[in-house]
Write a structure and sequence with these properties.
The complex is a heterodimer of chains A (about 130) and B (about 110).
Chain A lengths: L2 E5 L2 E3 L5 E8 L7 E7 L5 E7 L8 E3 L7 E6 L4 E6 L8 E8 L17 E4 L3 E5 L2
Parallel strand pairs in A: 2-11
Antiparallel strand pairs in A: 1-3, 3-8, 4-5, 4-9, 5-6, 7-8, 9-10, 9-11
Chain B lengths: L3 E4 L2 E4 L5 E7 L12 E6 L6 E5 L3 E2 L7 E6 L2 E6 L8 E7 L5 E2 L3 E5 L1
The chains are: A mainly beta (about 130), B mainly beta (about 110).
Chain lengths: ~130, ~110
C-alpha cells in the first residue's frame, strides 16, 4: 500500500527540540521530493519546508517562520524523511503532515525561484504540542 | 513572501448547485519553464488534505469532473459544477512557485 506515516510527535517544552519521522512505503521513496506541512489547532495549512530527491541535489528550502530552527533530511535506504525541530516555540504547536512532493522543476531563470510540486500523497499527521 | 487570498471564506450551497472560489496571488505564479504553480486542495472533516487540481487546471487522478480550475498569472478560480454532499470541507489554494503558501481556506457546507 502506498502510504506515509508520521511519528515522533508529543508534548515538548518551549526552547527544546523534537524530531519527527515520516516513513514511506509502497513507492520508490528516493525518486521523490518530500514536503512538510503543518496545521495549528483550528487554523489553516502552512507549508514548512521540503527536501528534493538526490537526483535534484537534495536541496532544501524552508518557510521564513522556521528557517534556521528546523532542518529536513532524508534517509533513502530506510525510506524515511525527518523534520528536526529546534528552539521550539508555542506557536509551533500543530499537526505536522508529511507529503510526497512531485517537484521536478528547475530554478526560474529570472527570479531564481525553485518551484514546489503538488502534494499527491499525505500522511495522517502527528501532533506536536509546545507548552510549559 | 507570496500572499494567497481566497474569497469567499465560507460558502453554503444547495446540492446540485454550482460553487466558485477565487484565489489571488500577490505575484505571478508563471514560471520560466512555462508552468503555473497553482494547486487546489480539499480537507474534508477529520481528514488529511487531498489534492484536487494541479498547475491551475489539471484534475488529479480520481477527482470527479465536476471540479474544474482556471486562471492565469495571479487570478485563479475553482469551480464545482454541481455540489454534492461529499464535497463539504475546506478548500485551499496554494502557490508552489517560491517556497509554498496556502490561502486562508474556504469552508464549503451544504444548505
Amino acid at each position: 500500500e502506498v502510504q506515509l506515516v508520521e511519528s515522533g510527535g508529543g508534548l515538548v517544552q518551549p526552547g527544546r527540540s523534537l524530531r519527527l519521522s515520516c516513513t514511506a512505503s509502497g513507492f520508490t521513496f528516493g525518486d521523490y521530493a518530500m514536503s512538510w506541512v503543518r496545521q495549528a489547532p483550528g487554523k489553516g495549512l502552512e507549508w514548512v519546508g521540503f527536501i528534493r530527491s538526490k537526483a535534484y541535489g537534495g536541496t532544501t528550502e524552508y518557510a521564513a517562520s522556521v528557517k534556521g530552527r528546523f532542518t529536513i533530511s532524508r534517509d533513502d535506504s530506510k525510506s524515511i524523511a525527518y523534520l528536526q525541530m529546534n528552539s521550539l516555540k508555542t506557536e509551533d504547536t500543530a499537526v505536522y503532515y508529511c507529503t510526497r512532493d512531485q517537484s521536478h522543476g528547475y530554478y526560474d531563470i529570472l527570479t531564481g525561484y525553485l518551484p514546489l510540486g503538488y502534494f499527491d500523497l499525505w500522511g495522517r499527521g502527528t501532533l506536536v504540542t509546545v507548552s510549559s | 513572501d507570496i500572499v494567497m487570498t481566497q474569497t469567499p471564506l465560507s460558502l453554503s450551497v444547495t446540492p446540485g448547485q454550482p460553487a466558485s472560489i477565487s484565489c489571488k496571488s500577490s505575484q505571478s505564479l508563471l514560471h520560466s519553464d512555462g508552468k503555473t504553480y497553482l494547486y487546489w486542495y480539499l480537507q474534508k472533516p477529520g481528514q488529511s488534505p487531498q489534492l484536487l487540481i494541479y498547475e491551475v487546471s489539471s484534475r488529479f487522478s480520481g477527482v470527479p469532473d465536476r471540479f474544474s480550475g482556471s486562471g492565469s498569472g495571479t487570478d485563479f478560480t475553482l469551480k464545482i459544477s454541481r455540489v454534492e454532499a461529499e464535497d463539504v470541507g475546506v478548500y485551499y489554494c496554494m502557490q508552489g512557485i517560491h517556497r509554498g503558501t496556502f490561502g486562508q481556506g474556504t469552508k464549503v457546507e451544504i444548505k
